[in-house]
Amino acid sequence: MQANRDVSVEVVKGSIHGIIGENGAGKSTLMSILYGFYRADSGSVEIDGRTAAIHSPGDAIAAGIGMVHQHFMLVEPLTVLENVLLGAEGGPLLRDGVRQARDDLDRLERDYGLEVDVDAAVGGLPVGIQQRVEILKALYRGAETLILDEPTGVLTPQEATDLFRILAALKKQGRTIILITHKLREIMAITEQVTVMRRGSVVADVRTADTSREHLAELMVGRKVLLRVDKGAAQPGEVLLEARNLEAVDDTGVRRLKDVSLTVRRGEILGIAGVAGNGQSELLEVLCGIRKPASGELEVNGHVLWSGQERTDARRVRRIGLAHIPEDRQRMGLVTAFTAGESSILGYQGDAAFNGPILLHRRRVVSACQRQMHEYDVRPPDPLLLSSGFSGGNQQKIIVARELDRDPEVLLIGQPTRGLDIGAIESIHRRIIELRDRGKAILLVSVELDEILSLSDRIAVMFDGAVAGEVAAEDATEQLLGGLMAGLGNN
Amino acid sequence: MEQFGFFILLLDATLRVSVPLVLAAIAGLFSERSGIVDIGLEGKMLGGAFAAAAASYVCSERLAAAGLEGLLPAAAWVGLAAAVSWSVLLALLHGVASIRYHGNQIVSGVAINILMSGLTVLLGIAWFSQGGRTPQLPPGGRFRPVVWPGAEAVAEVPILGHLYSELLSGHNVLVYLAFLAVPLAFWVVYRTRFGLRLRAVGENPEAVDTAGISVAGMRYRAVIVCGALCGVAGAYLSTAQSAAFIKDMTAGKGFIALAALVFGKWRPVPTLLACLLFGFLDAVAARLQGSFDLEATTPLVRALVDAAPFVIEALPYALVVLLLAGFVGRAIAPKASGIPYVKSG
């Protein structure tokens, strides 16, 4: 497949240049070529007017290009210092390099406000600090141009603000920064020039001052999109899901849920915001019947779970009217090695409609899947294609179709649109609102603040396993939620 | 005093049986720290043992035929070189399968074990016609004990003299080499550029790749080091500890070494301690056999004493199972070990 087609980009020295596009638009491929991770089939790169031959990351580093990857390239058991040294050790023995690195890091930390404990093991640091380590790594190698790939995806709003402050300081010192993102707000806030990519090609290259969020969004998807979800006021009815004082420990004995109490009513969406890894996953696992809580009570659709007479497991929880769209669609949502039809009955394979005395009714499975695919606009609409052959958005639509088709009373959704393009996001958001308006109870977990803000009627923020605060959607601001997400309390 | 002497002998035996374990475990440490799981330590040691004995025997025969008896000690070194070369070749075979072709590392390692178990005997029969053994080496063809200066003189001094002359002095050069390999490995792993890259590549090869370092290059270097050390371990078995190659003479030592590596959490010094522990158990088991007057005891005691060596032999494996199950601390392997590195995207 052609990931980049005749792409030309010019970046001015000492500026912050944004590259924006939907997932799969070819932004990351382009940057991987610049960094020597992949090789371009044709074309050239010029730095300071001279052609640079970049065939490997080593060449890129030598040419003064540094990259902060979306998934950090850090070795967790090693210290910050060792991570910075890796590949730039300054000799066969570490001794001399270590001394040099300590001095240089000291200076870099002072110059750019990049404070970090250089002797700490990287694995134990918060993600915001790990990202600083990545930036330090690039600067230590003498990077004049810094490429950041979706740098704010894992950060709290406050951490993102810190990052932008650091980037501004770097720019002031004459370094060039290329920021790859799909977040319009960041582009508007920090860049001077922005290149828009769509399906592997550059569709626009404009000065940030001359454009607007709406205009950029339109360029990205090639048609007008609604950035806000259209939805009326919620009409909450009786409580369908109630959790009281839930506690849970994970397999290594760490407390993951601390005294969590929540209610979700008919006809409303409760959004769970928070930085990934603050107990949201464990909460979903307890609610959907795959993790036993250490204590606490849970009632779903009039049935007591976990502590009642009946045993609790995912199958029974489904039967009492709860559907679950899991966070990790490839690991928990479907089996990538199954056909779409087989994936579309996972969890419901025992239904009389599909299950014969010995064999599955294959034809019925296929035709049910076919119908769902048309209804939910899954492309290509082929139930016999392997699940792994669909794009992320279409895989998610297969799962959404499967879970909503049973008309559940309560729906749990984790990261419904992670990694999806705007078209798919729109369609999934519409489905969720529709379900709410039909009087179902919905619990939505997402690390995307925009998504939480545009869908939820009430918002609970999780921090360190506990509910840090709960606010009504109309009172929620990014600042307020950001403070709660960072564990700063409700002030 | 007699008990002390017995204890010294037991420690002495511990050192002797620990040598191949230490060498193989340190070999495995280099491979696994780089992300290449090596269950083929056993096979490489066995192949090395055969190569050492065969090469040393042929070499000493030629030397004797040419009337160069004075050069006989060189035969042992020729044997060692052969063992190291052969074992490195096997390691590279494993390396090419795992690194170049992204093969399953367990399958490749097991294949090497099976291959060596059969091939050594086959070649032994074909070349020497002694049922798979190699002929007995003349004294010059082996690594002989090195007596330390003054060992004879102080042998009668209680305790210290005993320790010096019995425990420290009087081993062959490979024993000292094995115990030197541990601090050397520590220094390499924690104090050198190679070591830093080694630790990184077994945890997160992508980070190494993006730092401009060749992942495959690092891993090949690591498996070569692994092969060389396994070769030394093999040579020790056939040309130092005994004087010939015997069918399946490694007898599971490669697996015990692997167990010691897990027990030592992939770190040089704890791995050495684990090897010494397992070696000590082995030495005790050997002592127990036939050291009691069993006629005088009850059948139950007799059965227990008979079973003890087997129980002790199984102990390393049992301990590792407990360790991996999380009962005795935790053993966390290098994160990327066993996973072929394929550029994503």
Could you describe the 3D structure shown?
The complex is a heterodimer of chains A (491) and B (345). By secondary structure, chain A is of the alpha/beta class. Chain A has 17 helices and 18 strands. Chain A is globular and about 70 Å long. The N and C termini of chain A lie far apart (51 Å). Chain B is mainly alpha-helical and 345 residues long. Chain B has a single domain (2-254), classed as ABC transporter involved in vitamin B12 uptake, BtuC. Chain B has helices spanning 2-33, 41-65, 74-100, 105-128, 151-154, 160-168, 173-191, 193-203, 205-210, 215-241, 253-263, 268-288, 299-324. In chain B, helix 1 (2-33) packs across helix 12 (268-288) and helix 2 (41-65) packs across helix 10 (215-241). The A-B interface holds A 28-29, 32, 35, 37-38, 56-61, 67, 69, 73-78, 82-83, 85-89, 91-95, 97, 137 and B 191-197, 199-200, 203-204, 206-213, 335, 343, 345.
State the gist of this model.
The complex is a heterodimer of chains A (491) and B (345). Chain A is α/β, with parallel strands linked by helices.
> Which bin fits the share of residues in helices of chain B?
over 70%
User: Beta-strand level of the residues of chain A, as a percent range?
Assistant: 15-25%
Mean pLDDT figure of chain A: 88
Task: Tell me the helix content of chain A.
Answer: 25-40%
The count of helical stretches of chain B stands at 13
Main sheet attributes: strand count, strand direction, barrel closure of chain B: none
What would CATH call the class of chain B?
Mainly Alpha
User: What's the total helix number of chain A?
Assistant: 17
Protein chains sharing the most extensive interface: A-B, 34 and 22 residues
Distance between the termini of chain B: 70 Å
Strand order of the largest sheet of chain A: 4-5-6-1-7-8
Proportion of residues in extended strands of chain B:
under 5%
Distance between the termini of chain A: 51 Å
CATH architecture of chain B: Orthogonal Bundle
